[in-house]
Amino acid sequence: MISTYSIVACDLEAREWGVAVQSKFLAVGAAVPAAEPEVGAIATQAWANLAYRPDGLALLRDGYSADEVVQTLVGADEGREHRQLGVVDVHGRAATYTGSECLDWAGGKTGPGYAAQGNILVSAATVEALASTFEGSSGRPLAERLLACLAAAEAAGGDRRGRQSAALLVVRRDGGYGGTSDVAVDLRVDDHPQPIEELERIYRIHDLLFGETPEEEWLDVGPELAAEVEERLAALGYDGDLPDALRAWAGAENLEERVRGADRIDPVVLEQLRAR
């Protein structure tokens, strides 16, 4: 029984879809979320039917709306009254379903671009917090909005059995490492006394290594800054041509996604270099 609260959502401007989830259940990220860019996202929980994930994405891929996906999945499932499901489709339409046999408190709420749901909760306030936090956080990156939703839901009461694991999944076409994956964020805390706080900590590391600084904030590397960077790299054992030395150091520090030659430098990279 995956006693859980989750939010399934999208940012149509950024073309991102994602799921955030917390539960008193081991490794909830391995069971609840699924998402595909330009298709949609799904959360399956309560007495979860894990086939909802591939089957639901297949329906979304075929052009079904979120409502049609829910109706199709639960309509063919004899265990439907024990299921809970949230879906957001390619157009941001959302649907949520809670079977009559899900344990109290259980229910969901939808709005533009999101479906929030939970079961075995302290009260409806948990789902209301998911919804209101998402609605009030437009303009921020989707991953940050989803994390804020989890924190607000926990503060509002959360899962009445407690907490154990949490996960965050965000997809964007070619948005993953090196542009060779669609998975922009896939972070999981499988067993921890404070899973949301731990997920937030891991996300901060992820953002440091793989985040994107706006182009207008990058710094031109003139003679003075180039001399400083060369000196700092040499002190760390990276001599030679500046672009090569910078690339080698960044690779060793897992910052290679933030380096593009040496004519301009990401201020995050410069800050990390100076901190060494």
Oligomer: single chain
Tell how many strands the DSSP assignment holds: 12
The domain count comes to 2
Task: Look up the CATH topology of the largest domain.
Answer: Glutamine Phosphoribosylpyrophosphate, subunit 1, domain 1
Summed over residues and divided by their number, the pLDDT gives a mean of 96
What is the strand content? 15-25%
What is the CATH superfamily label of the largest domain? Answer: Aminohydrolase, N-terminal nucleophile (Ntn) domain
Question: Can you walk through the features of this model?
Answer:
With 276 residues, the chain is an alpha+beta fold. It has two domains: 4-210, Aminohydrolase, N-terminal nucleophile (Ntn) domain (Glutamine Phosphoribosylpyrophosphate, subunit 1, domain 1); 215-275, no CATH class. It has helices at residues 52-61, 66-75, 125-135, 142-155, 195-210, 223-235, 242-252, 267-275, and strands spanning 4-11, 16-23, 33-36, 40-46, 83-89, 94-98, 107-111, 114-118, 165-171, 183-189, 219-220, 264-265. Strands 7-8-1-2-9-10 form a six-stranded antiparallel β-sheet, with helices on one face.
What topology does this entry show?
Layout: E1 4-11, E2 16-23, E3 33-36, E4 40-46, H1 52-61, H2 66-75, E5 83-89, E6 94-98, E7 107-111, E8 114-118, H3 125-135, H4 142-155, E9 165-171, E10 183-189, H5 195-210, E11 219-220, H6 223-235, H7 242-252, E12 264-265, H8 267-275
Antiparallel strand pairs: 1-2, 1-8, 2-9, 3-4, 4-5, 5-6, 7-8, 9-10, 11-12
